[in-house]
Each structure stands twice: as C-alpha cells, then as structure tokens.
# Entry
Amino acid sequence: MNFDMPNFLPAMPEMFVLGMTSLILIIDLFLNERTRVVSYLLAQATLVGAFILSLSLYSGNAELSFSDTFVLDPMAGVLKMAVYATVFMVFLYSHSYLRERGLFRGEFFVLALFGVLGMMVLISAHSFLTIYLGLELMSLALYAMVAMQRDSRTASEAAMKYFILGAMASAMLLYGMSMLYGVTGTLELTELSRAVQQTQGDRLLLVFGLVFLLVGVAFKLGAVPFHMWVPDVYHGAPTAVTLFISTAPKLAGFAMLMRLMVDGLPGLQPQWHDILVLLAVLSIGVGNVVAIAQTNIKRMLAYSGISHAGFLLLGVLSGTPEGYAAGMFYAIVYTIMGLGGFGMVILMSRAGFEAEQLEDYKGLNQRSPWFALMMLFIMFSMAGVPPFIGFWAKLAVLQAVVSANLMWLAAVAVIFSVIGAFFYLRVIKLMYFDQAREQGSLKPGADLAVVLSANAIGILALGAFPGALMALCLQAMGA
Amino acid sequence: MLENYLPVLIFIAIGIAFGGFMILMGFLLGPRKPDSEKLSAYECGFEAFEDARMKFDVRYYLVAILFIIFDLEIAFLFPWAIVLRDIGMFGFMSMVLFLGILVIGFIYEWKKGALQWE
Amino acid sequence: MQTITLLIVLAPLLGALIAGLFGGTIGRGGAHTVTTVGVAIAFVLSALVFKQIAIDGAESFNHSVYIWLVSEGIRFEVGFLVDELTAMMMVVVTFVSLMVHIYTIGYMAHDEENWPEGSGAGINSYQRFFSYISLFTFSMLMLVMANNFMQLFFGWEAVGLVSYLLIGFWSVRETAVFANLKAFLVNRVGDFGFLLGIAAVLMHFNTLDYASVFNAVELQKDVTISIWPGSEWNIMTVIAILLFIGAMGKSAQVPLHVWLPDSMEGPTPISALIHAATMVTAGIFMVARMSPIYELSEVALAVVLTIGAITALFMGFLGLVQHDIKRVVAYSTLSQLGYMTVALGASAYAAGVFHLMTHAFFKALLFLAAGSVIIAMHHKQDMREMGGLRKYMPITWLTSLIGSLALIGAPGFSGFFSKDSIIEAVHHSTIPGSGFAYFAVLAGVFITALYSFRMYFLVFHGKERMDEHTRSHLHETPWVVTVPLILLAIPSIFIGGPYVGSMVFGDFFSEAITVAPAHDVLSQVGFTSAMGMIGHGFLTAPFWLAASGVFVAWFLYMRRTDLPAKIVALPVVKQIHWVLVNKYGFDDFNQAVFGGGSRNLGTGLWKVGDVALIDGLLVNGSARLVGMVSAVARHLQSGYLYHYAFAMILGLLALFGLFVVG
# Structure
C-alpha cells in the first residue's frame, strides 16, 4: 500500500455521480411536492453528465488507479455508458408511475443513483475489495428501493426476502474471497491470477473458494438454483423498481462475472467453465419451462429474465474474447428488451390499477393497435425471432458456444428457447386474438408513449443494424 | 504468517478461561439460600406486567442505527489518527471526504426529523 | 449514385406503404397520387441512370448498401448492381409501371361494382390495388438491381407474392382464388429448383455475390458432382439447369406454363404489368444475367433452347382456339416468352433481352388495349360478342393495330427487329436442338400472325355481335386509359430501329453479358443498319409467313366467316381442336396426378403423421409434459423465505459435491 496521490481521472464519473447524488439528497430536503421535479431533472442531468464524462474518458486501453484496485478499460466504459442510458430510460418510464402512486420522492432517485454508483464501482473493480464494495453499495440501494412502498405488504415482504437472501449470498461471496485470499495472499485481480497460475499441486482450496464466489455472482444474475428471489421480488416490488432491478444490475452482474472469472481466475477456467455450463443449462431450462405456468406478467418476465441470464452465461463460458463479447452483447440487449417489457407493464397500468395479469393484455390490439404492435416487437425479440435484436443476441452466444465445441449445449439452449417461445407468443395471442376484458382505448401520457415506442422501434432498428453494437462489444473485449 | 495470530489465540484462551474461572468461583463459593422472592424477575418492586419480548418503538432502531454509524466513525478515526503522519495528504483528504459524506447523511436525518423523539 | 438507386427503389415502396397502411385515411385520390408519384420518381431517376450508364458510358455501379449478416465469411446483404442490362430493365419496368398506374385510375374507377354487395373484402379495394402495384414495382426493381443471389431471390419471391395477391385480387370470385393458388403452387415448383440452384452456387463458390461468382466460374468449370451414385454432372450444368427451372416457373415455359393463362383472372392492368411486361420476363433477365454460367454448359443451353422452342410454337397454337380476348393475348405472351428463351438458348442473350424490351412495350399495349375494350364492353371478354368496335373506339383500335403489327413483326415496327434477330441467330446456332428451334420459331411467326389478326378482326371489324344494351353505351374510354395507350404505342413502333444496332449487334451489353466466342451467333448475322434490316426483311421467310398469316386470318374471319366452323368439323382437325381446347391436357394431368396425388398423400400423411404422431405424441404430448413440469416446478416457488434459503444451500452443496469433492 502506498499513500501517494492516485490518478483521479479514471474515476471522474464515479466522483461526479457521488457529488451530484449528495447534492440531490440535500436539495431534495428543501423541496415540496410541487417542486420535486427538480430532483428528477437533476438525477437525469447527473446521468447525462456521467455519460459525457465516461464517453470522453473512453479509450482503447486499460488504466489502473487507486493502488490497482480500480480499472478503467473499454469494457468498463461501454458497460457504464449502457448503465447510464438504461437508468435514464428507467427514470423516464417511472416518472408518471411514481407520481400516481405517491412514490415520487427524492429518495427514489437518490437510491437509484447510489445504486448506479455501486454498479460503476463494481464494473470498474479490480480487486476483491472494490468488487465487494460496489456490490454492497448497489445491493443496499436495491433493497431499500424495493421496500419504498411501505404500505404495500407484498413490497415489504419482497424487500425482506431480497435482503436476507442477498445477505446470504454476500456472505458466501465474502467467504469465497477470504478462501482465495488465504491461498494466494492477495486481493488484487492481476496478482491473483498470477498466483493462481503458479499454484502447484492441489487446487482444492481454490475450487472451494471459486464455488462460493460463483454462488454470489449467480445470485446477482438470478441464475438457477440461486434464482428463488427473482420472481418474488420482481412481482412484489413497485413496477418502476422492478424495471430498475431487472435491467441495469444485470450489466453490473455481467461485469462482476467477467472481473472475477476472466480477470481474476483464468487459471481456473476448466473448473468455472463446468460450473457455468451447469448454471446456464439449469437457468435456461427452469426459466423457460416455469414461465409457462405463470399468469402474472411480472413473474413471467422474471422467469424470462432467469432464462436470459442463462444465455448470458453461455457467452462467458465459451472462454474466448468473441464469447465474452457475445455475452456482453446479450447483457446489453437484455436490458433493452427488459426495459421494453416492464415499460409496457407501466404503460398499461394507471393509478389504482396494476396491469400485472396476463389477462389484462387480452384484446390490446382493439384498444390500441400501436402499442399492441410495440409489445409484439418486444415479445418477438425476447423469443429470439429475426429480425429483432433478440435474435442476434441469441445467435451470437450460440455461435460462441458452437465454436467452443459444445454442440449439445447449443442444442439444449435452442430447444428450451423454442419451448420458451410459447409464453412470449401467448402474450401476442392474447393481444391479437382474444376479446378485450375492458373496452376503451389506452391513453398513456405522451412521454411514456414516446419512450416506449422509441424503445420498441429501437429493438427493431438494432435488429436491422446489429453490426455497430456488436463491433463495440468486440472492441471492448479486445477481440 | 499464521503464527502471527498465536498471541491472539492465547489472548482468547486466557480471556475465556479467566471469565469462566470467575463465574465458576462465584458459583462454588457464594452462599445460596433461594426463596420465592429472590427467584422472581425483580427482587425489588414490581411484578412483571408482560412478556419481555414486547414491540419496541421503531425509533429505538433508528437511534441504534445512527449510533452504530457514528460509533464506527470513531472506531475508524482512532487508527487513522495514529498513522496520520505516514499517510500524508491523501490519507488526510480521504478522511475529510468520509466525514463529509457522513455530514451529508447527518444533515439528511436531521432535516427528516429522525433525531426528534416526538 | 447510391442515393439515386436507393431512391428509385424506395419511392415505390413508400408509395405502397402509404397507400396500403393509410389507404382509408388518404382516400382514393391520395392513394393513386402518392403511388403514381412514387413510380414517376422512380421512372425519372431510372431514365437518368440509363442516360448516365448507357449513353454517357459511365462505369457500372456495384455497391452493397446494407449488410444483413456475415456468417462464416458468407455475406448476406442488400446491394445494387447497375450496368447496361439493369439500367434498361429499370427503365422498362418503371415506364410500363407508370403507364399502368395511370391507366388503373380509369380501369379501377368503378371497382366497387366488382364486389358483392356489402362485402367487407371490397373496402378500400381501390387503394389496396394501388398499394399492390407499387409494391410490385419495388419488388421488381429489387430483383433486377440485385448484385447478389439472396436479393435476387428476395425480389423473385416478392414479385411472386404480389402476383399471387393480384391474381386473386377479386378474392370473392372462386375462379380468381383457384387461379392464384395455381400460380402460387406452380411457381413453388420452379422456385424449388431456383433455390436449389442458389444453394449449389453457395456450396461451390461460398459466396452469393454475382461478381465473385462470375470471377470464379472459369476455375470451377470442370468440377463435377455426383447427384446420385455413379453419375457425374458438371457443376455448371447442374447450376444452370436448376436456375433455369426457376426461370421456367416465373417465365411460364412448358411444362410450368399452366398458371399464366389462368392468371388473367386478375384485373387487366396487372395482366399488362406483371403477366406480360415485367414479372414473367424475370426468368429471361435472370438467365441473361447468369450468362457467364450458362456459357460454360452446352447441355444447359440445349435444354433452354428446346424448352423455349416448344413453348414458342405450341403455346401459339392454343391462341388460335381461345375466345376470351385476354386469353388470346396471354397465350401470345407465352409464345413470345418462348422466343426469348430460344434466343437465350442460342446464346443470343442480347437479342433475347432486346425482344424482352420491345415485347414489354407492345404487349403491355395490347393488354391495356384489350382492357380498354373490356371496359367499353362492360367487363365482357368473349370475342364472339364483339366486332366492329373500330368506329366506336378509334384510339383503342389504332393502338391495337400498332400493337398487333409490332407483335407479328411487321418490318419497321419494334417487334420486327427483335424477332428477326432471334430467328437469324437461331439459324446460325450450332447448339444441339437448334434445327428444331429454327423450325419452331419460323412456324411460330405464321401462327402469331394468324391468332393476332384473328383477334384483331374479330374485335374491331366485321359484324357487331354485341347485344343492344351494350352497343348503345359503346364509346371511347376516358383519357387516363387512352393516354397510356398512346404513350405505349410510340415505343412499340419506334424503339426497335434506333437501338437494334447497338443493343443486339453492338457492344451495348458487352459488360453485362458474357458470350463464349464459339457461341457468338449474333456476330455471324450480317447486320448493316436498321434500314438495311427493314429492306432485307421484306425478302425473308418470316415476312412472307407473317403476311400469309394475316391474309389467312382476314380470309377466315372477314371473308368466309363460315369456314372456321367447317374446318374444325373436319375429321382430323376435330381431334386436334379438341386437344387444343383442352390445352394439351396439361391442366387435367396436373389436376389428376399432382393435385390428386398430393392430396391423397397429404391426407395420408395428415392422418398418420400429423394427427397420430406429431399432434398426438409430439406436440400435444410434449406440450402436456412441459405443462406438467411447469406446474410442478412452480410449487417449488413456495413463497417461504426459508425454502429459498434452503434451496440456495442445497445448490451450494450440489456444486460442492460435483466440483470440489467429485
């Protein structure tokens, strides 16, 4: 450890977000119901500012700082920018939803921004210490956000479950880290990987620690069998919070996986490869199959998210830069689609009514052909139908898996995708071929309508031009 | 490396032994003449009204949490103060930043009324 | 250039989308304005491109505009290749399409009468029609402008789709639905071959790009593949024949021609646009485009030549016995497509493509004129109820005469130059089968003249055989109908002379079309000048054959109108006539063998395979299984926190068991 002045420049976005969030916390104290919109605008400005900072810091090479506990590399740059953009969209979606439910408070934005800060630290972490720090900062913000709707029994229950299970997962992660520290004597990832490579003979302790680490990561990503919290929390939390939980943290979870496995433990690749195969198969299988039995769309999307997490793991486990890029592509694409899916739930809901049941989507085409079409885009994309972006994401990870000579794994993934297509298509069937339960056309606010349309059309447009995003991911992974 | 912790282990062992010894001594040497008064929950004064596992006012928790935060702050300040000479400007500014964030939190809780009992 | 090509393609598409999606909002006027303007833009820009490429001699343009996906080094993309051949096709397509758009305004003006009272299908049919024809223009342009096989296939299928939609446009008529189903199924046969051809290209060249394929053909020309054990096929022959099967479907060559006459169930403007001028020539265009491949296989050329000759001659016969005015023109189209195919088979690609161009103008003209007659006759199409229309419809009469003269190849008219070039080229050809082909095209000239003028005399001259009500309402059609006729009549006369020198005998297509020196029949035809060709034309056999055909038609249908019935009653002729009326039995054969056979097969497979195996066992069985698993699995999600925590611990232990201990 040295205490020289470190290079602060790579951490500029983090410092900016921290400063702005503290500022919003203070300013919000002096606002009332009418002027609260200032917090909202400041939060959005924070994200925009951070985006600009990250963009201007973006370069092709990696830069270490803070005694090598912090790294800014292309992957971190791209993922951070994706996080800002995602959260920006989340705020846009949530604005009117929160207002209608009396949740439009400064704390929502402050917590979300602290969550963002946690994700940023996690994404840029280059030491067990910073990984844990970022993870906890993110998780604590998420727990609190789920519990924000204090008069809702389900939300409180969900928050409690999330907190306790999350704490367990953190404990396991921490235990795994301590094991690895005990064996290698370092927390810093580059040194760790060197130490692991040099370890001769028995690797039992290393694998022991690795399993614990992966439990922590799998919990965050919602991979089976550490997924139990996902449906309950997505379901119980206010939809705006679900929107947040289900999207941006996945990007951070992906980064965490990459940092721990690829940066830290490449020497254990054969072992974590096998574990990830198991987790991926279970996730894809359970996620797709159980989603079929759901009648609540938030739960259905939760299981869909579980299966998507499995696909994301497929990209990483192939162990090549192309595979990592495919995984990253998948993570980004999933957040875009998740935004659209839960955004649609928000759009359909109104004060005093949550459009959570699948039945609520019956006959949507009669009530609003346009939004039915948008939902069709989102569902098709999630199911992986070309030409939507979801297809390319699936294709990319499957290509990675095939090139890693895991043909059977690709086949399993495809079979379960086909099974999974059922519940996506069921939504479409409900929208287009069933009679609406309630009449009257859908009249969402102009902002919501525009955001959702842009989101869904973006899914289509990215599907038509997937090259740029893919190239970005490849570049970020140095492939 | 592990032998560095040996003193700690010895310390723990001595601590346990010493504590256990005291209790054991008291148990062995003390006179014991129990009667019903002596065995009641409170020897002096009232009968217990209700179960001890009662609902606490949530404000106790609030105060407890705030206490822990500032308690940790103190715990953090002591080692810092000792090595302040070695860690230089960076170490100093780090603590200032830490305190600054705590102050922001303090302002927040104050303004939110967390420090007012009523 | 890239912007211009994109605009050319997208303007009709935009028009089609607006008219199709918002037809109800913008109304009839809006729909026909927006589509016509879109096509007009495409036409003007195409003319500009033609001027740059063909006249100013600019470099041909070959660029991809959008890469859809790259897989294993194979690029799937959208790209444009604009050379002389494409530029010519673009002008023809957009010009005829524009004429048809204008014409349609008049032809479909009272379309609501064609739908039964209160039929929901008839709502906004006018707008829908315009949307379809604009969409067709877009698809056709995508086809001709493609620079790779994938886009070619896209255009190929897209024009097929629009053709299907338009043949069955009056979807409440049973015959129309039957006809469009037939067209679709027959084209499936052709497209299957086409797709196999493209697959063969992909397999052997590992690319779909035209230029890369054509650059590689020389190296691959001796490669053979074995289709079934013990047979060695030259890869070029296989590819060429498979692609030609596609062309046979689209360009209605025997035996895949059966759909085209029935396609006349569609409204007349699309008969002119799709089933005469443009879509059916796609096969011709494709073969000309693939000339580097065809040149390497004499077998394939012989197949092309023979099929074309059969089509040219035998489809012409059928025109003699038809009474429906549109069907006569349809069989004439078949026969003319046969001529073009013969030219391709004789390696006279330039002549074939030139005939394609002239034919597009005069055949569109004939169809539109027939449509004009049909409008005047209140949608009656039987020639036996017409006659003497000349004095009621002078413009239609004159333009029809021009069209017919061009069709039979009267010296000086556009059709003369193209058809004569083909005949001369076949004469010089040495490909196996060229002797038969020469005979077929010569005899075809006589037949063509006979049925064309039979129709002409029956419709415009002689006794007025229509009923009194119709006669009293006879008058010339409105200007939106006659103006396209006049505009099409002009190129029908004049397009031949000025271009024959450069396009057929010059080096106009030298970049786009490859001809092996041994096959170069066109250079053996002693061509001097267009005027010389006309002068020489009067002395050759085709002229006298055509003249005698006209004479016979005049004699039979003007002079001795009793004779045709008597001739048909003669013993041998009676049988031949029966064969002709039954169209050589193709339809009945297909109906019985393919239709019936596949229906029986289908029923069998449906009962055994579908209902029992797939539905019973696989689909419902697996769905039930998944449903059961799903229903059980959801109970694991009990909602109890300690269950969840327990599951996590179990998961952890399982991982330990598998990876640490095991």
Notes: Residues 14 and 70 of chain B are 31 Å apart (CA to CA). Chain B is about 70% helix and 0% strand.
